């Protein structure tokens, strides 16, 4: 049975899918900081958000709260990972070729 109604699960699914689409488009915008495993994790995140949209109406409040906590940990961790990739890329490419450690 598929019952798609607008509840907090839809909002949570849109936040997660927005974050995962950001990972997909990172390969186009900044390919130097994109990794191959981003495609895998973005696909899993989009699958997770589609499951939340389709079957999220069956979540009782405590399960929905656990999903909100999971997404609130996942999205900032992804953001921090991407920022650290950019910092690492800029650090290693700012060295001149004749410098030695």
The shape is elongated
- How many strands, which pairing sense, and closed or not: the largest β-sheet? none
Number of helices in the DSSP assignment: 3
Unreliable segments (pLDDT under 50, ≥5 consecutive)? Answer: none
Could you characterize the architecture of this molecule?
With 101 residues, this protein is mainly α. It is 73% helix and 0% strand. The mean pLDDT is 86. It has helices at residues 8-29, 37-55, 61-93. The chain has one domain. It has 3 helices and no strands. Helix 1 packs parallel to helix 3.
Could you write a compact summary of the structure shown?
This protein has helices spanning 8-29, 37-55, 61-93.
List keywords for this structure.
73% helix, 101 residues, elongated, mainly alpha, single chain, 3 helices
Explain the layout of strands and helices.
Layout: H1 8-29, H2 37-55, H3 61-93
Helix pairs in contact: 1-2, 1-3
């Amino acid at each position: 049975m598929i019952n798609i109604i607008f509840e907090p699960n839809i909002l949570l699914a849109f936040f997660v899918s927005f974050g995962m689409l950001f990972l997909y488009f990172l390969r186009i915008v900044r390919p130097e900081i994109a990794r191959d495993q981003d495609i895998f994790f973005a696909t899993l995140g989009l699958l997770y958000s589609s499951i939340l949209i389709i079957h999220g109406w069956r979540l009782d409040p405590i399960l929905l709260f656990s999903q909100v906590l999971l997404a609130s940990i996942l999205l900032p961790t992804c953001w921090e990972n991407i920022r650290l990739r950019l910092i690492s890329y800029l650090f290693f490419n700012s060295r001149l070729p004749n410098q030695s450690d």
